[in-house]
Amino acid sequence: MQSIHQFRIKDIEGKEFGFEAFGNKKILIVNVASECGYTPQYAQLEELYQTFKDKLVVVGCPCNDFGGQEPGSEADIQQFCTLRYGVTFPLTQKLGIKGKEAHPLYEWLSEQSKNGVGNFEVTWNFCKFLLDEEGRLMAFFPSSTHPVSEEIIDLI
Length: 156
What we know:
Layout: E1 8-10, E2 16-18, E3 26-32, H1 41-52, E4 56-62, H2 74-85, H3 104-110, H4 112-115, E5 128-131, E6 137-141, H5 150-155
Parallel strand pairs: 3-4
Antiparallel strand pairs: 1-2, 3-5, 5-6
């Protein structure tokens, strides 16, 4: 499977959606957490989403795998993101990112044998994967790369 469009996942409210719904847009997938030093990136992710929403969708994937920095329920996460950062981009249910608890989406994003591009290790919250309009992986960015950095904007 060389395209993310074949994945189905549940949003933060428990409704299933498929990535094919974003077929004509690039997709930025980010593992997010509410109690992380990088949490202020939510504001930049929302800015990126609002600026480029005609050609980009941001998908936040809450994760508690790194330092236990996303301990809340989906309802807690959604409330935090909405009230604190005005997040309007899609959020998924809490996902496992690494190890044997890794969600198949993140296995695909991280393994060259599945994504056809490269092996990428998600080492902390707010790592970013950018996919093209066909759902193919284009690039990986570590937590330290800001969402509105030239590196990301140039690829959008």
